[in-house]
Amino acid sequence: QLQLVESGGGLVQPGGSLTLSCTAPGVTLEPYVMGWFRQAPGKEREGLSIIRHTDGSTYYIDSVKGRFTISMDTHKTMVHLQMNSLRPEDTGRYYCAATADDNPDWADFNLWGHGTQVTVSS
Predict the structure, then answer these.
(1) At CB < 8 A and 24+ separation, what contacts does 113-116 make?
(2) Given a cut of 80, is residue 1 above it in pLDDT?
(3) What is the reported pLDDT for 2?
(4) Which residues of 73-93 are buried (b: 16+ CB within 10 A; e: fewer)?
(5) What gap in Å lies between CA 78 and CA 82, rounded to an integer?
């Protein structure tokens, strides 16, 4: 199975920006649809965004739409989540995920990283 590694988390002030990255070292992400999830304290893991590189299509849930941008590099080795206008409620552990399903629902993501912590606080 694919092993994903996230990076880029940290502490940021409200209104600030942060970029997360995800890769599978030495392995192309080309066969996969990629997604980002987060888990806030005391809550279940929540899907945030999806990218399908074959047609460039993306999807965002309403709470991050217009603030977050998902992208994949041209070599298909990394996926990013650019987060702007961050709010305290964005605090949580952020996970990269992958699926071989080319039209997935959230439940179809079955390959995961260990996550990176994002804390939005003054």
Answers:
(1) 113/3, 113/4, 113/5, 113/6, 113/22, 114/5, 114/6, 115/6, 115/39, 116/6, 116/7, 116/8, 116/9, 116/20
(2) no
(3) 81
(4) eeeeebbbbebeebeeebbbb
(5) 13
Max Cα–Cα distance, the chain, nearest Å: 40
Q: What is the DSSP letter of 43?
A: S
Q: What is the pLDDT of residues 60-89, one digit of tens each?
A: 999 999 999 999 998 899 999 999 999 999
Write the DSSP symbol of residue 78: E
Tokens of 4: 């994903």
Per the structure block, which two tokens stand in for 40? 């806030």
Can you give the pLDDT at residue 20? Answer: 98
